[in-house]
Specification:
560 residues, GMP Synthetase, Chain A, domain 3, 26 strands, globular, disordered C terminus
Length: 560
């Protein structure tokens, strides 16, 4: 062990812990009159926000919530959710952000597994909650969230309505210091099999992630996505990795924040226009939904910047957004990584190159952000070359990665095999530091001894002018092991079939971009492609559907 020099601090020096409360204090210090907006119904400034956080802490304390308890939230993206993101962990309690798009059975499992003690429930989910309340094993009380304080909704263990209780509570709270390694948040991520897994983060991890994200979004000149003069609106659910952690950054900097509630395309468009939103983040499918909304037609989004994550950013989506005036930037992360790991960056060499080359790098996963270490590893745990060609599993180290899965130590050990967090993604690293995600390990298509990237195929197919949306998976083939199968949604009024796609892909074969075996032999023309609860392509469900279609000889199949 290295013999380092450690000097003991002065006896009265304050051992400043990295706690979420330190993020709250900064916003009102910079811009106390900046607004936090909820839909088109409510707005208040940062001074009021800080006061409401204190009031909520008093309400929860009076309801019996104490340090170490888990407090769950079932709400749309709102000012209330933002208040909970601060008040709950600042009490020393753990915030459980419930994925309200899971099935009732899965929600019940996550609440019992997380040992939720108290639950804040939006009236929109009252019926869902009432249906599972009798099977909850640890919950002792509930708080009603509603846009109408006079709403009469009954919940088991109800202590009152959010706004009424806040109005009666004291406007100050003396938040105590405690160990920065205390768990602050938890949520559940779904995998390919089994029950959802509980991911958790400490105060220290969230503060360090916030500082690194603030640096990435505001200090790197070729990105410069959000400074505190921007107007921020998330289009990523707040239950999903704290809306990617951006609300913590926005609050720390005193950025004007806009929360849209339930995602309704017309409301999103209305808020972007009326509040002059300049920065957001989402998965590709949500962006496509937004751009297709009637309210987006004819509107110039010039100056708006959007981070795309969760799924690969393909060139067709990038070009469509650019035509509307939106600058897209790809980023990479996952539930277990808090989530930010890398972000596209245009260095001086790329700035001197042509726009085509710059665009090709803006849609890659990007360069690891400050304090992240990335490597490519084979199945034996050996580091692989950083040459932009050699493929392996992307593995990570950073101070904010989840240290395991809640109450599932064996799965946590598997996540951290060889002392690195294993992402399950096949990727390359090049000499500029760029991560290029080639596929999920489970989604790589193995055909005739060749590995085919479903993500690359989706990107190339999406460039066909009649394609609105596409998903590619591997299906069993007696001769080749697997063959690519494409589900395609055609643009309105456009015709598509497998022959058209074959002709579209031929030039990419001739250029050596893909081999001839990568051309799908079958496609399914569908009106909608299945999505997960956070808007990603649901390839697990797609495989099940395709197997059923193959067994029944579906009329949707179009073969070469």
């Amino acid at each position: 062990m290295l013999q380092t020099r450690i000097i003991p601090p002065a006896a009265n020096a304050h051992p400043y812990p990295l706690l979420i409360k330190s993020l709250l204090l900064s916003g009102s210090r910079y811009e106390k009159n900046r607004e936090i907006v909820y839909r088109d119904t409510l707005r208040y400034n940062y001074a009021t926000f800080n006061e409401r956080v204190a009031r909520l802490a008093n309400v929860l304390t009076q309801a019996g919530v104490k340090a170490g308890d888990t407090v769950a939230v079932m709400d749309w993206d709102s000012h209330r959710y933002l208040e909970c993101m601060f008040a709950v962990p600042m009490l020393g309690a753990v915030l459980h952000t419930i994925n309200i798009r899971l099935s009732p059975e899965q929600i019940l499992y996550t609440m019992n597994h997380a040992e939720d003690r108290f639950v804040l429930v939006n009236s929109d989910f009252a019926t869902l909650y009432q249906g599972i309340a009798g099977q909850l094993s640890t919950v002792t009380g509930t708080l009603l969230l509603t846009d109408n304080a006079q709403s009469a909704v009954e919940l088991p263990g109800l202590v009152g309505e959010y706004e009424n209780l806040l109005a009666a509570a004291e406007p100050t709270y003396a938040f105590a210091d405690f160990d920065e390694n205390s768990v602050a948040t938890t949520f559940y991520t779904t995998g390919t099999t089994g029950n959802p897994k509980g991911v958790y983060f400490t105060h220290r991890q969230l503060v360090l992630h916030t500082l690194s994200m603030a640096t990435t979004l505001g200090s790197l000149d070729s990105i410069r996505l959000m400074g505190n003069d921007d107007v921020y609106m998330p289009i990523t659910p707040m239950f999903h990795v704290h809306a990617w952690g951006v609300p913590y950054v926005a609050t720390m900097l005193g950025v004007k924040q806009v929360y849209p509630g339930r995602y309704e395309p017309e409301m999103l468009c209305k808020l972007i226009k009326s509040e002059q939103v300049t920065f957001s983040h989402c998965v590709p499918t949500i962006l496509q939904m937004l751009l297709a909304a009637p309210g987006a037609q004819g509107h110039d989004f010039k100056g708006m910047k959007v981070i795309i994550g969760g799924s690969a950013l393909n060139r067709a989506v990038y070009d469509a957004a650019k035509a509307k005036g939106i600058q897209l930037t790809a980023a990479y992360g996952m539930s277990e990584t808090c989530p930010l790991i890398s972000c596209a960056y245009i260095n001086e060499d790329l700035l001197a190159a042509g726009e085509e080359q710059r665009a090709s790098y803006r849609i890659k996963a990007g360069i690891p952000v400050p304090m992240v270490e990335a490597a490519i590893m084979d199945s034996e745990g050996q580091r692989l070359p950083v040459d932009g060609e050699t493929q392996g599993e992307l593995v990570l180290r950073a101070p904010w990665l989840t240290q395991g899965y809640y109450r599932e130590p064996q799965k946590g050990e598997e996540l951290w095999t060889h002392g690195w967090l294993h992402t399950g993604d096949v990727a390359t690293l090049d000499d500029m530091g760029f991560i290029d995600i080639r596929d999920r390990i489970k989604d790589v298509i193995k055909t005739g001894g060749e590995w085919i990237s479903s993500l690359e195929l989706e990107d190339l197919i999406s460039r066909q002018s009649a394609v609105r949306e596409v998903a590619v998976v591997g299906v069993a083939d007696q001769q080749w092991g697997e063959r690519p199968f494409a589900l395609v949604v055609a643009k309105e009024g456009q015709h598509l079939d497998a022959g058209i796609l074959k002709e579209h892909l031929k030039p990419f074969v001739e250029q050596g971009v893909i081999n001839k075996w990568a051309i799908p032999s079958q496609i399914a023309l569908v009106t909608e492609i299945p999505k997960t609860s956070v808007g990603k392509l649901d390839k697990k469900r797609i495989r099940v559907d395709l197997k059923q279609w193959q067994e029944t000889g579906s009329e949707f199949l179009s073969s070469l």
